[in-house]
Amino acid sequence: MQDQIGIPANCFSSSGKLTDDPAAVTRSGQSVFMSVYRTKIADQCRLITVTWCKNLLLHGLSVSVQGHEDLESQYTCKVELKPCYFWRKQGSKRFLVDGTKAVDVFWDLKSAKFNGETEPNSEFYVAVVCDEEVVLLLGDLKKEAYRKTRCRPALIDPVLVSRKEHIFGKKKFCTRFKFHGKGRFHEISIECKNRSCSNGGGVEPEMEIRIDGHLVIHVKHLQWKFRGNESIHVNKARVEVYWDVHDWLFNPGLRHALFIFKPIMSSSSSSSVSSLSTSSSLSSSLTSTPLSSQTGSCNTGSIEGINSGGGSSEFCLFLYAWKVE
């Protein structure tokens, strides 16, 4: 079931989902940010996907709720933020989940500050309501959201399970993100450049990854090390970083590299093995969007965000960096 509000096909697929088809993404040259949260909604533990997309013509917002019987099915509300004519900067939409349970999406973007980004930074809210509870609330206008919805906060806090970003650039790719829910934003920059060989034999590609301006990963001889992983520390917390830049180097035309950032909550060896195994599996099967099919378990007051093996944060950041010549 879909509630379509004019979202163009180049932002979302006909099913209302963000498409990872390279042809669909590259046709519009758009930035896409997709965040997946897990919480209890309609008496079941489900995933809620919030997607923002931006190209030269418009912004798009989509909120999808996972079905229960079919994990691949989603119930979607879409909003178009088109600057060239009046669009619904504030409003609400209702749709049914599993055919019986009403879910309402409220949004207020009248004063939203995007500061050139795909997602708003402040002065907005997006709220998802079910059974008179606000099961997901994004943005800083929380009082206004509760006043508008006239609903109470849910007993269970949602957990951010995964995030995908599609960004475009020539040599340098930048984004901002919180590695932990209560942490601060960190600036992530990735740069691929050519380095002159010391023996005068031409140039060799190399890659630098910086966090808040500090060099954390430097890969030389990138033509031989186009896939790999390293551990870094951000504010004393360990983060596993995986990269695959094969298509940057060996495939012609517009192509993307993939970077995965996975926070590690424990330094125990067993946790490290569990984390490496989990992230390697994610890296090798991205097209199936493995995290989108994990419902996990819901408990009163919280949702399990830690693997049963202990230590490894369930969250992953998937960064698709599209190189434009």
The whole-number mean of residue pLDDT values reads: 76
Order of helices and strands: EHEEEEEEEEHEEEEEEEEHEHEEE
Number of DSSP E strands:
21
Q: Summarize the amount of helix as a percent range.
A: 10-25%
Assembly annotation: single chain
**Largest sheet, order of strands side by side?**
1-5-4-3-2-11-21-18-17-16
The SS-based structural class is mainly beta
Question: What general form does the structure show?
Answer: elongated
Q: Sketch the major β-sheet.
A: 10 strands, mixed
Kindly provide the radius of gyration, computed on alpha-carbon positions and rounded to a whole number of angstroms: 20 Å
Strand content: over 45%
Which residues form runs of ≥5 with pLDDT under 50?
1-10, 12-20, 267-295, 300-312
Give the number of domains. Answer: 2
Q: Given the structure, what is the number of helices?
A: 4
What is the terminal separation in angstroms? 40 Å
Organism: Acer yangbiense
InterPro entries: DUF868_pln (IPR008586)
Protein name: DUF868 domain-containing protein
Summarize the structure.
By secondary structure, the protein is mainly beta. It folds into two domains: 139 residues, no CATH class; 157 residues, no CATH class. The chain has four helices and 21 strands.
Secondary-structure blueprint:
Elements lengths: L1 E2 L18 H7 L2 E11 L2 E11 L4 E8 L7 E8 L8 E8 L3 E8 L16 E6 L2 E7 L2 H8 L2 E2 L5 E11 L2 E6 L8 E11 L6 E9 L2 E6 L7 E8 L2 E8 L1 H5 L4 E10 L4 H16 L13 E2 L2 E2 L12 E8 L2
Parallel strand pairs: 1-5, 9-10, 11-21
Antiparallel strand pairs: 2-3, 2-11, 3-4, 4-5, 6-7, 7-8, 8-9, 12-13, 13-14, 14-15, 16-17, 17-18, 18-21, 19-20
